[in-house]
Each structure stands twice: as structure tokens, then as C-alpha cells.
Amino acid sequence: MQNLIKLIPLASIMILMLFAFVIPLLKKKKHVYKLTLVIMSLVTVINLIHVVYIALNGGYLFDVGHFPAPFGIVLRIGEVESGIGLLFCFINLMVLWYSYFSLEKEIKSNRIGFFHTLDFLLLASLLGIVFTYDIFNGFVFLEVSTLAACGIIVVKDKKANIKAAIKYLILSSLGSGLVLMGIAFVYSISGHLSMSYIHEALIQNAEGKHNLILISMILFTVGLGIKGAMFPLHIWLPDAHSSAPSPSSAILSALVIKAPIIFLIKVYYLVYGTTILSGTVVLDLVLFLGVLGMIFGSLFARSQKELKRMIAYSSVAQMGYIFFGIGLGNKLGLIMAIYHIIAHAVTKACLFLSAGSFIEQTGYKTIDEFKGIGKEMPVTLGIFTISSLSMIGIPIFPGFISKWNLAMASIESGKILLLFVLIASSLLNAVYYFPIIINGYFGEDNLVGKVFNSKIRPVRTLLPLIILSVVMVLAGLFSGFIIEFIGRGIYI
């Protein structure tokens, strides 16, 4: 039984890749939706079983094929990897469920199967990035995820989407090139691609190669920073996230920009290790860019007129919190960076899908046009409100848990002045989310001559959003358990 459970990470990737190529064989849209929901439910359930197994028995290494490392491919599965894997599967399931009721209104009917093929390939590659213990295979999965992500952006087949996809492809290709150069540098020093073997070789051969090691670390940081929307390398994100179909926007923000950050954390601590990492300026650079992202991402979000574009810039700010936690360089900071990946993924999926519902039902796009929307779509605005409160950092919500513990990590690291940055960033979050909420409930400008609740959606179409919002609240209420679980598998 244990051997079967240990197959789950590899099986999840293989199932998704296999059915990605089965989907185009189906002619009816109804069959496409049913198959994708069944497969995603199956993959989510087996990953939930896997998390329970990891919680009871701890992590393990899994050899893919007949050869162990350093000659064979190895997956490293611990608390962090299993938890993130379940998170990705669950959110993708909710997004696909939501798309069942809305996707045809945003893309052409004959592209429905193509979207789901790309989605399965994308999720499989993201899981591969999370589970891998081999830096070159991580790079291969990064490339697959880039191409699939471009596909779910351009699937809408509008001029804005094509432009955004090209920008993302060019910048992401630049990031991939830098990552590949980083791999070449560490391979030239170590002669290995498996993370543990690279680490051992770097420890033994570090003398006289400090500059080479530093260059490789910077290459990984910038390359993966582009893919993970690190400020100011985020310039592809606003166009891609705002122009894509709402299910694609949710996947891009909740999942696609998170996997490269998990890979970066693994490179820092499993390839280089704390001893080498702490002897460089890389973490200080990451901390500085995280601070800039927190502040300027919020300032840019505040200046936006379109709702989805504002939420997209908010993602830049929220990624800043993740880089902030990594840059602190202590255990609590790293734990909270991973916790914020979870918190932001669930919350931002809610925000993009809620915004998509507003746009779909009203045809509006700009923030001012949604004044009074709470009269017509009270449940959807309620979900948007709960998600916004989490982003701002209101107590009990996961956003507050992240910010509070990041403040504790800042104090622990002796960087007291960073508390003012956290406070300022939270206030800026409130500045652009609260007006939308208040005007949504109390704005009267757009209500003259309208029938209240005329835009309300059936409950069955809102169930994915309701479930996501409930899980988001539970992530805050049971944050102690989640943080303890992450802490058991953290890399420091």
C-alpha cells in the first residue's frame, strides 16, 4: 500500500498528461467537461490521500525508473511538496468547475477542448516543478508550463491576448535562458544535476569559486524571478492576467507564478544550502525587491481603472510578500513565504473568478461601473469582499496571518524598520480594495431604472466560488496546523 501511495506524485503527472491528449478526441463539449472534472476530482482526491500519508509518515525520495541518483531521475516529496501539489490540484478543480458555466461566454466553442488540453499539460508541468529533485528536469517542466500558459492566454483569440501572450513568451524565454545558464554554471562546478549531489559538490569545491557560485545564484534569481513576477521583472503580468479569460487569469495568478518560486526556494536551500546562501548578498537583494514589489505593486494597482487589471497588479504586490519572507533568510520567514503562497493562491482565485462573474453578467470592465453591483449580485460581491479582506490583512483571514508572522520574522531577524513597510503595504491594499467594496454595496450611480438581483447567478454556478472562499477562511482559522505542517518539511 505504501508503495502505491508513493506513486501518487508521478501518477498525477502521468494521468494529466495522458488525458490531455485524450480530450481532443472528444467531439461534444459536454463530454469534455465531464471527463476533465472527473479526472481532476480523481487527481485531487489521490493528492489529498498523499498529504495524509506524508503527515503521518514524513517525506521520501522516489526513483523514477530503475536507476537511482545521480544517474536516474528522483522526485523529492515532503510536507511542502505534497501540500503545494494538493493546493494546485484543488484550485484547478474549482476553476474548471467554474469554467463549466462560463468559459463558452469568453472563448469560441471549438476551443473548449483545446483549453482543457492546455490546462492539463500546464498543471502536470507545475506539479513536475514542485516535485522534482533534479534541476534540469525542473527546467524542462518550466518550459512546458510556459508554452501551456501562453496557450491559455491566447485561447481567447483577441488582439490584446495575442499581444500579452507574445510579451509573456519573450520575457519568459529570457528567464528560461538565464535559468539554463545557471544550471550550466553549477554543473560545471559539481558535475551533477541532482540537487543533493550538487549541494555536496558545492560544499567541497566552493573554495576559490565564490564568484562563479554567486553568478549562478543571481542567474537563477533573475530567471525564476521573471517567471514568478518579481518586481520589477513583472512587466508581462498585468497584460497577461487582465486580458486572459477569467479561468485562465485565476490559474495564472493562483498557480503559474507560484511554481517557479517553489523551484527557486529549492534551488536556494537544497542546491546551495544555508551556509553558502548566507555568505552572499542574494537574500538581501530578494528582500529589497520584495519590499519594492509590496509598495509599488499596490501603488500601480491603485491607479488602475479596469477591475481585472487592478487585481493583476495586486498580484505583483502579493508576490512581494512572498519574496519578502524568502529574503528575511530565517526559518519563520521562509515558512510564511510558503504559507502566503497557499493563502494568495486560494484568495486570488476567488478574486479573479468573482471579477469574471461581474464582467460576464454586466458586460462592464471598469471599476466605476460596478457601483451598486451588490444590489444585483450580492453573493458574488460577498465572496469578493471576503477575499479582499484577506488581501488587506483583516484578522482571522489568511492574509492577516501571513502579515503578522512576517512581522514576527522581521523582528526575529533584527530588521525592525521593515514593520513600517508591512504596515504601509497593508494600508495601500485597503486604499484600492475598500472603495470597490463600499461602492459595490452603497453606490447608487448605476442603479437607476434597474431591477435588483437581475444579474444574480444560480447557486450551482457559484458553488466553486463558495467552496474556495470557505477554504480560504479555513486556511486562516487553521493556520497553526498548516504552519506547523510546513515547518516540518521546510528546507532550512
From TrEMBL:
It is a multi-pass membrane protein. Pfam families: Proton_antipo_M. InterPro entries: CPA3_Na-H_Antiporter_D, NADH_UbQ_OxRdtase, ND/Mrp_TM. It is found in: Cell membrane; Membrane. Keywords: Cell membrane, Membrane, Transmembrane, Transmembrane helix. The keyword Cytoplasm does not apply. The chain crosses the membrane at residues 6-26, 38-62, 82-101, 113-133, 139-156, 168-190, 210-237, 249-270, 276-300, 321-342, 381-404, 416-442, 462-486. Residues 134-426 form the NADH:quinone oxidoreductase/Mrp antiporter transmembrane domain. It comes from the Bacteria. Belongs to the CPA3 antiporters (TC 2.A.63) subunit D family. This is NADH:quinone oxidoreductase/Mrp antiporter transmembrane domain-containing protein. It comes from Fusibacter ferrireducens.
